[in-house]
Amino acid sequence: MIEVDLIPVASPIHQENYWRKKLDAIIHLMLKHGFKINLYGCIKSAEEAEKVEISPDANAVLIGVLTGGTSSIAARIATKIEKAAIILAHNSGNSLPSAIEAREKAKLLGVHPDMAYLNLEKPNQVANELRNLKAIIKTIHEITSLKAIDVGGKNRTLNIGAKGKLEIIGLDEEAMENTRRRVNKESINKVLNKVLEQAELHEVSVSDLKESVKLYLAAKQLMNKNNAKIVMFNCFKYIEKYGITPCLTVSLLNSEGLIGICESDEAMTISYVLSKNLSAIPPIICNTSSFNPAENTLILAHCTAPLKSSENGKKIKLVKHFESQKSVSLDVKTPINTEVILLSLSRELGTLHAAEGVIIDSSIGLEDMCRTQIKVKLKGDVWRFIDNTPSNHQLLVFHDNYRAVKRIAKLVGIKFSSIHFQ
Fold first, then answer.
1. Domain shared by 228 and 316, yes or no
2. Would you call 62 helix, strand, or coil by DSSP?
3. Distances, alpha carbon 76 to alpha carbons 9, 17, 70, 93, in Å
4. Residues 6+ apart with CB under 8 A from 186
5. For 290, phi and psi rounded to 5 degrees?
6. Which of 95, 108, 204, 250 has its CA 20 to 30 A from that of 258?
7. Do residue 155 and residue 96 come from a single domain?
8. CA dist 118 to 58, 75, 122, 130, Å?
9. At what angle do helices 206-225 and 185-198 cross, to 10 degrees?
């Protein structure tokens, strides 16, 4: 359930029975799609707009533009909203032109609201828009107070645009390893059986798998202890020291709605936070491993794909880690012909770069790459992608409209750049 404040605005020249029907229709649809609504009285003048009091705890405030002639009223209300201001338009009564005008007037007043649009005659459009709106609002709520533990890293705090903060707690590898050694057998066997329901051992022994499962359980214990939803690993340092890869740990955590990040990549951590609510399939952290200008394709590869990203009915292969040939990594066959977005955040954490594509092959089996391999055909020039991407790491997000990512970035206060062009 996503909770929002809804402030309807209407022109005084419109009869109440007209705008009331629109408001009732919007409320009905939002309730149907899982929103909890705190409804304000309808605002019909600039004087009333000045008197509106908005709770600073509101996750998001929707300004429902019910009629034309309301742009100044809606813009003034937008300036009062501390977290996420979203102007909500519909397809009749001059709602949309007034919403656009309100957005531009709000910019002149120093705020940058999002705009959502419901075509009340198109159920599929409404469903898609409300699904994206829920993801956007949930993300805005989550970023206000996030904690991560960084195994092998230092204490620090990162800003997530202008709206969010991520507190990172540095954790000595020995603390993780000591916790790992103490996890109980019953917990190990429970997770082991769960993994083996979805995966097959290739190159990997049951003993290897048990040691890897113990790391996952230790990570969860330390995340709970530190009230953290994210764990970051300095992977190669940990592998060199203990011979165990965090690949399965990252995979399992990301499959269950928590966040595991390899190589302590701060930019990737924030990218994951911003996009993880957009799809029921969790995103996959990937290396940009090769590209083919003639085909306009990329091969993305890594060893940490979430179990939940596997194509239905396809068993995951548990194999040795590519670089070290140790421990456990994953070869996951992802769904083919699936629309995806590739995201990478700039190193100064200020600009989110995006590209659109389609998965055309996966689980390719190339020996000289990380084990989960995904071939993506871009919807724009692959050379332009290579020339402009700010990171080797790409976050592959199972979603078909990067405008939702753009909206999140704007509300958070991060610049957005589309690498692809058509």
1. yes
2. strand
3. 11, 25, 10, 21
4. none
5. -165, 165
6. 204
7. no
8. 22, 19, 8, 8
9. 110
Give me the CATH number covering residue 70: 3.40.50.10940
Identify the pLDDT of residue 421.
47
- Find tokens 């306009």 and name the residue: 296
Task: Give mean pLDDT, residues 293-298.
Answer: 97
Judging by DSSP bridges, how do beta strands 297-302 and 284-292 pair with one another? antiparallel
Cβ atoms of 318 and 210 within 8 Å: the answer is no
Q: At what angle do helices 95-108 and 71-78 cross, to 10 degrees?
A: 50
Under the banding of pLDDT at 50, 70 and 90, the label for residue 372 is: very high
Strand order in the sheet with 156-160: 156-160, 164-171, 146-151, 230-233, 259-262
Instruction: Please tell me whether residue 1 adopts helix, strand or coil conformation.
Output: coil
Structure tokens belonging to residue 139: 């993300």
Q: Where are the beta strands (DSSP E) in 40-125?
A: 61-65, 85-90, 114-118
Overall number of domains in the chain: 2
Q: Which domain holds residue 362?
A: 146-418
SS3 15: coil
pTM comes to 0.93
One domain, residues 285 and 359: yes
In the structure encoding, which two tokens stand for residue 133, read together? 């709106």
Q: Exposed (0-12), middle (13-18) or buried (19+): which is 167, by Cβ within 10 Å?
A: middle
